[in-house]
Amino acid sequence: MAHVRARWGVGRGLPLICALALLAPVPAAIAAAHTGVIDHVADGDTVVLRSGERIRLVQIDTPEVYGVTECYGPHASADTKAMLPPGTRVRIVTDPRLDQRDADGRTLAYVWKGGLLVNLRLLRTGDAAPYFYDGDRGEYASQFFATAVAARAAGRGLWGHCLRGAVPLRPTRGVATGPVRASKVRFATTAQKPGAGCNPNYTPCVRNSATDLDCAQVGHEVKVIGRDVYHLDADGNGYGCESY
């Protein structure tokens, strides 16, 4: 009889156990992460690892440098290259809220260099705009958007250099900065004329000014040959206003 009661008790408890199992919370999806070493930077928002894996920095967009080169595209690429030179060890983290690969087979991920989130840094410097493809918002979407709003208000990067400060902030669409100006001044063909009102720290001519100048006022690419008194060379590579 005791054996019968034991069997009856177990049988009666099974439905309860099953019900509790069904009610248990399902663990949230976990971000996948792996490390890699930078082989080269393809453009402002795409890097290639030594393994051959191509990484598209997720939830941001930089101006194009292939096909029709867009305003600030070369500058954004230069900044990413400066941040991630070949041999840099990085951590690649995907977001379970978002697609893991794009139509070109690139891994969509956040790229960490130590404690630096590269995606976020590019937004802070105005090299990139937030891009929430299909309206999907990842783990850092709110922070990304707020950072871009602050960069735009300060006129940093593409926000101050392109379309006369009128680049639209549209997170569900890729950034559109317009094409690089076709009439680019060539350094080799333009001489600096003494006494012509040109600041001696730049070539070709940048006019003397009692106040700071920005690239919209200069209107062309320049080479820094002295001190960068007008702060035109944002990435310290010896050239300023490279998107013009």
Per DSSP E runs of 2 or more residues, the count of β-strands stands at: 11
Strand order of the largest sheet: 1-2-3-6-5
Instruction: Tell me about the largest β-sheet.
Output: 5 strands, mixed, barrel
- The coarse silhouette is globular
The name of the CATH architecture of the largest domain is Beta Barrel
CATH fold name of the largest domain = OB fold (Dihydrolipoamide Acetyltransferase, E2P)
Determine the strand fraction and express it as a percent band: 15-25%
Summed up, the helix count is: 6
Instruction: Output the structural class.
Output: alpha+beta
Instruction: Supply Rg.
Output: 26 Å
How many domains is the backbone divided into?
A: 2
Mean of the pLDDT scores?
Answer: 83
Distance between the termini: 93 Å
CATH class of the largest domain: Mainly Beta
Listing every helix as H and every strand as E from the N terminus to the C terminus, the arrangement reads: HEEEEHEEEHEHHEHEE
Indicate the percent of residues in helices: 25-40%
Explain what this protein looks like in three dimensions:
This protein is α+β, with helices and mostly antiparallel strands and 244 residues long. It folds into 2 domains: 133 residues, OB fold (Dihydrolipoamide Acetyltransferase, E2P) (Beta Barrel); 63 residues, no CATH class. It is 25% helix and 18% strand. It has 6 helices and 11 strands. The strands form 3 sheets. It has a 5-stranded mixed beta barrel with strand order 1-2-3-6-5. A 3-stranded antiparallel sheet has the order 9-10-11, with no helix packed on it. Strands 4-8 form a two-stranded antiparallel ribbon. Helix 3 runs parallel beside helix 4. The longest helix is centred in the first third of the chain and has 22 residues. The chain is globular. The termini are far apart.
